[in-house]
Amino acid sequence: MATSQMVLGVKLRDDARFDNFHGDRNRDAARRLEVVCEQPAGAPVVVICGDSDTGKSHLLQAACHLAEQRGQGAVCISIRELIPFGPEALTGLERHGVVCLDDLDLVAGDGHWEEAVFHLYNRVLDGGGLLMVSLSEVPAALPFGLADLGSRLAHGLLIQLGVYRDEDRLRILMARAEQRGMVMSEDVAGFIMRRAPRRLGELLGLLDTLDENSLQAQRRLTIPFVKTVMGC
Length: 232
Hints:
Distance between the termini: 45 Å
Mean pLDDT: 86
Structural class: alpha/beta
Strand order of the largest sheet: 2-3-4-1-5
CATH superfamily of the largest domain: P-loop containing nucleotide triphosphate hydrolases
Helix content: 40-55%
Number of domains: 2
Number of helices: 10
Shape: elongated
Low-confidence stretches: 1-9
Radius of gyration: 19 Å
Number of strands: 5
CATH class of the largest domain: Alpha Beta
Strand content: 5-15%
Largest sheet: 5 strands, parallel
């Protein structure tokens, strides 16, 4: 499959935008990134670091949405999806003004991939674009073997995300429900939080299930109804 075909298949989530990145924990980091996206000069690479449940993918996609609103080409793609196609899959991505690579740490220590990412960095820089990557740790804590790549990442703009607290998860859950037109009381949200998986991605996945079931059953989100859907 050609790289161009893969890029065309990458769809941005409509709900992954800066204005619906909720939770106090990482609000300042999100705002800092938004400012960089609005004024990208001087920041050839942005490195977003954090646990897998902190919203890195959301912010990368939000950056692409903002770039497209400003008339720029943008692409966001997960390294996990590219690995089966090899490092050559990065060829041509630089034609976009904003290039976002999610989960770059997956290829840390792989010389072929590191060299390809380094060359992509240079092509993006030469074209006046912006490269954004996400990592599970700060660059220095990862086993990058190519010194030039490690140095570029270490000297890029670093944005670190913290692990969400329970109150953040509660606010995010209720805000996402409201965006869907679902009426969720604090009692119901608290019940879900006590029984649902702690990971934010799984929690929001449960919200999808509740939304679908409430529409089918024409039922409000009450604790008895949520119990039935969750099987608890």
